[in-house]
Amino acid sequence: MITDHTDMDLVRQYAQCGSEEAFATLVSRHVNLVYSVALRQVRDPHLAEEITQTVFIILARKAGSLGSATVISGWLYRTARYASAKALTLRRRRQDREQEAYMRSQLHDNPSDTHTWRQIEPLLETAMGRLGQSDQNALALRFFEGRSFKEVAAALGTTEAATKMRVNRALEKLRTSFAKRGLALSVAAVAGALSAHSVQAAPIGLVTSVTAVAIKGAAVPTSTLTLIETTLKLMTWTKIKTALVVGAVALLVAGTATVTIQRARANAASASPPDRFAGYATPEASVQSMIWAAGTGDLEKLPAAVTADQMDGFRAKMKGLSPEQISQALVAWAHGMAGYQITQKEVISDDEVHLHIHATPSAEALHSGKVVIRMKKIGNEWKWAGDVN
User: Fold this and answer.
1) Alpha-carbon distance 200 to 222, whole Å?
2) Helix %, strand %, coil % for the chain, to 5?
3) For residue 93, is pLDDT > 80?
4) Residue of 359, 237, 376, 360 whose CA lies nearest to 305
5) pLDDT at 224 over 90
6) Residue among 344, 247, 250 nearest 290 (CA)
7) How far are the Cα atoms of 236, 325, 337 from residue 260, in angstroms, in the given order?
8) Rounded to an integer, what distance in angstroms lies between the CA atom of residue 171 and that of residue 110?
9) DSSP 3-state of 372
10) What is the mean pLDDT of the chain?
11) What does the pLDDT read at residue 138?
12) Which is higher by pLDDT, 119 or 335?
């Protein structure tokens, strides 16, 4: 049955065969998530419906370019945020008191959860926007879609233990963000409120109308066409700004998509990355080899140090850049990591560890100077499998 297929199976069926059934199944699975994200930001049900249509139209357009490692729930969540931000910019609409009353009238669960939700709901999207993509993926799957830790782990390609750790860390980040706004809440209270109230049912008929405009060519209002184009531009710009080479690639503030060789040389004058290959027998050695490979500027040396999914993601993000631009970015990142230190090693399982890395804060490498990376053992070699935070 098509309902048993994974999200990426359905995306491929639509991209390759134009399967309306596959696309309609995707919409049915995720429409509540998308609608709820939009509604939280724009506080206007009609505008939220338009944003929902926009997001799935974009999914239909970009289905063929999504990588195999894409977490569809997280991708839709972020696209809904982009579209909502553009909708607010274009429309300048605010939710009035009647809409607030409508939203609160939908809450019928645990009174304690309801009270907490009323406190955090106006702050949630701002707090979520400060999280990294991996944390957003985990929370979208766990709370916005109500999946079990086993299902979340499968979607993220990690263990249940690592998934629980990531979800708890993401919840703690939300709790800390709320605390800064004067809300003294426990992680359990935040989790309970998210589970009970973070997703509201989309209006009846929205699945049908979304499917019709996204893949059947139904008439689309001019305002929606404008929103589609501006959202796509925002997504493209965000992709350029956040494109990372094995964790981080700098983009110039002026908006160019390259890191100049002059900056790389300036960094080289003050610090140098590891000058030797250390192998991949241990996580620590693999990190050194990864930075060494980047320092050579040779893209073809990187696959041995990272997982296939991460390499595919990197290549997709760097699509459109010239070999020289990519080489310059690699060198700049490696120099930005010069003098790095591994300050903590968390053993998650026999084939997964998390390394806490500190380096001098820089645009080319770690903006904050700190990162936690996931290392996976594949065969007898350790490889970088993405950031934990």
Assistant:
1) 27
2) 60, 10, 30
3) no
4) 376
5) no
6) 247
7) 21, 8, 17
8) 20
9) strand
10) 79
11) 92
12) 119
Nearest to 210 by CA among 18, 32, 9, 10: 32
**CA dihedral for 363, 364, 370, 376, sign (positive or negative):** positive
End-to-end CA distance of the chain: 36
Query: And the tokens for 223?
Result: 């305002």
- The residues pairing with 372 across neighbouring beta strands, listed in sequence order, are 356
User: How many residues appear in the chain?
Assistant: 389
Between CA 63 and CA 48 the distance in angstroms is 22
Element at 345 (helix H, strand E): strand 341-349
pLDDT (0 to 100) of residue 250: 36
- The half-sphere exposure of 265 on its side-chain side, counting CA atoms within 13 A, is 3
- CA nearest neighbour of 65 among 203, 228, 226, 235: 235
> What does the alpha-carbon distance between residue 155 and residue 138 come to, in Å, rounded to a whole number?
9
Check: CB of residue 314 under 8 Å from CB of residue 306. Answer: yes
| Rounded Cα–Cα distance for residues 372 and 346 (Å) | 10
DSSP 71: -
Closest CA to 114 of 62, 192, 218, 46: 192
CB atoms within 10 A of CB 370: 13
**Which pair of structure tokens corresponds to residue 380?**
């007898």
Q: How far apart are CA 140 and CA 74, in angstroms?
A: 6
